[in-house]
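Q&A log
Question type: sequence-to-structure
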Amino acid sequence: MTQTTKYLDTAHGRIAYDEQGSGPLVLCVPGMIGLRSEYRLLTPMLVQAGYRVVTMDIRGMGETGAVWAEYGSAPIADDVIALLRHLGSGPAILVGASSGAAASAVVAATAPELVSGIVLVAPFLRDPAPSVMLSLVKFLARSPKLAVSLWKSHVVKMYAGNVPADFDEYRAALAANLAEPGRAAAASHYIRSMSHARAEDALPRISTPAVVVMGSADPDFPDPLAQAEWAAQAVRGRKVIAEGAGHQPHVQTPAVVADAIMALHRA
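Response status: OK
Response body:
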C-alpha cells in the first residue's frame, strides 16, 4: 500500500501525515520517539474494513519538522487538534499509542467535538512514580547522543513477546531518522520532559467512548493488567488484553487493535 506524505504547516511547525482509504476517519498517533510507520500493519486492516486512516508523525520525528519550541504529549495534542480541523471531515476515532495515548486523551477532553471515540494502546495517562533510575535516565538524556543510545536499547525491550517479521527494518528506519539533523536533540527533549500530568488532569473530562488495549507482556508497567484496569476505569471505557504483546500491541497484535477500533465504532 503506497503512502504519499502530506504536510500541514501550523504556527508552530510542519506536521507530516498520510491518508489511505475512505469512510469514517481514524487518526493514529504514534508513541514518543516513534514513527507513523508503527501503524503499517494496522492501517491495511482498517482500510479494507472501510475506514479512512490518517497516520501522523509527531514533533521531531519522521517527516515532521525536527525543531520545535516544545515537545511532549501535551504539545502533540495541539498538533492533533490542528490536523483534525484541517482534515475537516467530522469527528474521528483517535488511536494513540503510549504517550500518543496521553495526547489523545487531552484532545478528547479539550476538543470533544472533533472526537467520536478513543482507542488508547499501552497508554501512559499519568506520570510514573519518581525513582533513582528515572532521574538517572533523564540526566543521561541531556546528551542527545546518549538519548538516542538509550532509546535504541529501550525499543528492543518494548517488543517483549511477539516480534513482527519486519522489526529489523523498522529499527533501521528509526535509527536513520534519529541520525537526521535535529532529531537526536528532539529525542533528548522528549526523555527529559517526560510528563503526562496534563493527560491525567484531562481524564475526568473525557466523555467520548473509550477502549484501552494493553499487551499482557508490556514491560513498561510493573503490572500491565492492573494498569489496564485503572486506565479503563479512568476513561470509563472497556479494556482489551492483547495476549503475548509488549508495549506495541498495534504492531505486535494489529488484528486485536483493529477489532477494538471497529467494535468502538459500532457501539
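Response note: Residues 77 and 239 are 23 Å apart (CA to CA).
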